[in-house]
Amino acid sequence: MTQIKIRDIKIFLTEPDNIRLVTVKIETSEPGLYGIGDATFTQRPTAVATAIEDYLKPFLIGKIVNDIEDIWQTSYVSSYWRNGPVLNNALSGIDQALWDIKGKMANMPVYDLLGGRAREAAAVYVHASGSNVNEVEDQVHAFIEKGFHYIRVQMATEGLTSNYGSQKKIQNITDTKAFTGPKWITSWIPDESDSDLIVAHPSGIFEPKPYIRSAIKLFEHLRNTVGWDFEMLHDVHERIPPILGVWFAKEVEKYQLFFLEDLFSPEDNEYFRMVRNQCSTPIAMGELWNNPHEVIPMIKDRLIDFIRIHISQIGGITPAKKISAMGELFNVRTAWHGPGDTSPVGHAANLNLDLNNYNFGIQEYAIPSDRTREMFPGFPEVRDGYMWSNGKPGLGIDLNEKIAKKFPFKVRAYGGAWGPARRGDGSMVKP
């Protein structure tokens, strides 16, 4: 029996909607048989492309496509030093494309290769945000009317210029601007107002206690106006000192959040023990983890309730299915990272895992534009608050290469890096 081998590996760098995406295509020795995978590290996409083109491609040409586990393990150690967002995203693109190929060879969706469905569709959550409580409330009502039950809520903090979920260019920063926190004395905030370049994430001033008071005000308002018949989520995005995070988790317990996300940075994982010992607020964590072994103690010690890993950051479907299996043993659910920079291919990979994993919890969903849907035919359909598979072999999604080539990367401020958020004294705030 002739073995099907990797014949070529291509990388597509495209930007349909102001988010830089990296898609990998593996062509095989079988005419017409190929697979695609997501390798998007949107802050450093060309570094990922170089890692694939210059290092993984020469290493993998001629390998047997069926041997996904061996390809993953040997590629993982092929640079000797392992992990990190560049190498793991590069490996993810390869891994997802190989699972896509295997599904096509078997004429079944990837979730069937993994053991079949544990559910018919995957519940998703969407993002509601605004400058004040009324704007957020309006968005929440609009999403509920569209059938969504799980809604992440974020609000700009009055008097501050840098808030996760608030995407505004910064201008006219002065120490006389009205605010609720300490006096601003920093001059290290760039003026982004006149720039025609895309700002990946705005710079600005952030102070923890005004933010915490603002978030609690939002939760109180939404429970009093919208009520309790929807699941509310919130993302701290690692921006507050750990001891304040412990206090915040205790304070929001009464609002019954579905989960509180990224309460601490990965460097402060031990603080989750303090949270677990003091309150029952459900905790989600993981999008910045890129070493699969970082999650082991968090699951084993039941310090988190939801695994928020960005699967391309850990190397693709192969490690993700192992982590989810471990989570099931400890009753820790999955909530794979799924914003716009996951890419449509990444969403399709997430969905195949969601349908198969018994311990699935929730799936983040970034609503795509018509252009993105056209570029990636087969983008999973969302209706009634659930994401549905189309049942096609492999990942169930494809790339229209002609359209992708029409939208090359645009020039960006700071080369695409996140602008730094700072305290009023100028010290950096972790994103």
Task: Describe the overall structure.
The chain has a domain at 122-395: Enolase-like C-terminal domain (TIM Barrel). The model is unreliable at 166-179 (pLDDT under 50). Strands 4, 5, 7, 8, 9, 10, 11, 12, 13 and 14 form a ten-stranded mixed sheet that branches. α1 (45-60) packs across α3, α2 packs antiparallel against α3 (85-106) and α7 (242-251) runs parallel beside α8 (271-278). β9, α9 and β10 (306-307) form a beta-alpha-beta unit. The chain is built from 14 helices and 16 strands. The chain has helices at residues 45-60, 68-77, 85-106, 110-113, 133-145, 208-225, 242-251, 271-278, 295-300, 311-314, 317-329, 343-356, 370-375, 401-405, and strands at residues 6-14, 21-28, 34-38, 122-130, 150-155, 204-205, 231-235, 259-261, 283-285, 306-307, 333-334, 363-364, 381-383, 386-388, 421-422, 428-429. The protein is globular and about 70 Å long. By secondary structure, it is of the alpha/beta class. The protein is 35% helix and 15% strand. The termini are far apart.
List the helices and strands and how they pair.
Elements (H helix, E strand, L loop, with lengths): L5 E9 L6 E8 L5 E5 L6 H16 L7 H10 L7 H22 L3 H4 L8 E9 L2 H13 L4 E6 L48 E2 L2 H18 L5 E5 L6 H10 L7 E3 L9 H8 L4 E3 L9 H6 L5 E2 L3 H4 L2 H13 L3 E2 L8 H14 L6 E2 L5 H6 L5 E3 L2 E3 L12 H5 L15 E2 L5 E2 L2
